[in-house]
Amino acid sequence: MTMSPVGGFGIYVHWPFCLAKCPYCDFNSHVRHQPVSQETYAKALATELARYAQMVPDRTVDSIFFGGGTPSLMEPKTVETVLNEIARLWHVPDTAEISMEANPTSVEATRFAGYRSAGVNRLSVGIQALDDKELKILGRQHSVSEAIQAVEIARKTFPRISFDLIYARPNQTLKAWEQELNRAIDLAADHLSMYQLTIESGTMFQRLYAAGKLEMLDPDLAADMFDLTQQVTAASGLPAYEVSNHAAPDAQCQHNLIYWRYGDYVGVGPGAHGRLTLEDGSRLATSTEKHPETWLGLVESQGHGSISEDGLGREEQSDEMLLMGMRLHEGIEVPRYEQLSGRQFNPQRLLHLQENGMVEWVGNSRVRATQAGFPLLDAVIAELASD
């Protein structure tokens, strides 16, 4: 077996179904009032995996990630079928991280042992808030007590767990967020993901906001919450290793690091994306049909649900590497960026960013955003990408 490409090699499996659509969510998720045939979808995922294995054979898999939607609506047997197929097609070492997103409703928490038996070794629980009233506003289907119970079950079942929270919610105060954050840290094992609430196109929140029925938090207060989050988590031994992700030493999500370090990943299932370096050194951006039943029909008729496979030029690759890598606390490897792009950073622009405290060098070969630069990351990246 060949080794992983630079940045690693991962498999992303998208399960598109949810019990309900959250009003803030713009992910490819769908509610079905009749049960779907899990056996049929498992077979289709296996078919699509086999097709990608022909494109990128002989790889060592660093991580597998079941995302959604709500992957914890999958039956453990479905997860096992998919994992067995991945192991048949590529080399999956014992050290591979196998993550699954889960919701903390009681119906899903009872499945945790089955997922662990199937091979999942890291669970990411979508809690979003530790306040029952706020959970209702966010359209979540669980209560705080269910969330805490799910985390406790997960901690006993999986070697590693994580959970998500959303902050800068309407009318949230800095003191309330600090209390919630400290409570979360007391609950957390070794990883927390904290996302600032944003208005995404096509969501219920976007429609309410446009109609004047939803008031977003003052941007300055939201920025204060970001700063507070960095301080509190760092003091508690969970420093940020990416803009929104915090972990104890050696507990970073290996799959997400593949994205941010601009590695290779296969994406299967409705609406999944991938980045693949082929045998000839060319790099492809892949994406699949979003609508679940349409995707299923495509897989059954043509062996895959792909709707685009576009070659990426040097500039596109280097722009993507910059966009992803600068989100990381470790920053980017400048020699790799220069090799990909065929150019060096503009020295005047780089110096300007340094003098303004937005970026800094780490040793002789890495550049990263500073704590002051992170809230202005889009502008920092645009400046670095300019000639």
TrEMBL record:
Presence of keyword DNA repair: no
The entry's localization annotation reads: Cytoplasm
Q: Which UniProt keywords apply?
A: 4Fe-4S, Chaperone, Cytoplasm, Heme, Iron, Iron-sulfur, Metal-binding, S-adenosyl-L-methionine
Name the predominant localization. cytoplasm
Q: Which InterPro entries match?
A: Coproporphyrinogen-III_oxidase, Elp3/MiaA/NifB-like_rSAM, HemN_C, HemW-like, rSAM, rSAM_sf
The keyword Cytoplasm is annotated on this UniProt entry: yes
Every copy of the Radical SAM core domain together lies at: 3-239
CDD domains listed in its UniProt record: Radical_SAM (cd01335)
Where is the secretion signal located? Answer: none
Q: Which Pfam families match?
A: HemN_C, Radical_SAM
Function noted in UniProt = Probably acts as a heme chaperone, transferring heme to an unknown acceptor. Binds one molecule of heme per monomer, possibly covalently. Binds 1 [4Fe-4S] cluster. The cluster is coordinated with 3 cysteines and an exchangeable S-adenosyl-L-methionine.
Q: Which family does it belong to?
A: Belongs to the anaerobic coproporphyrinogen-III oxidase family. HemW subfamily.
Q: What is this protein called?
A: Heme chaperone HemW
The organism encoding this protein is: Pseudovibrio japonicus
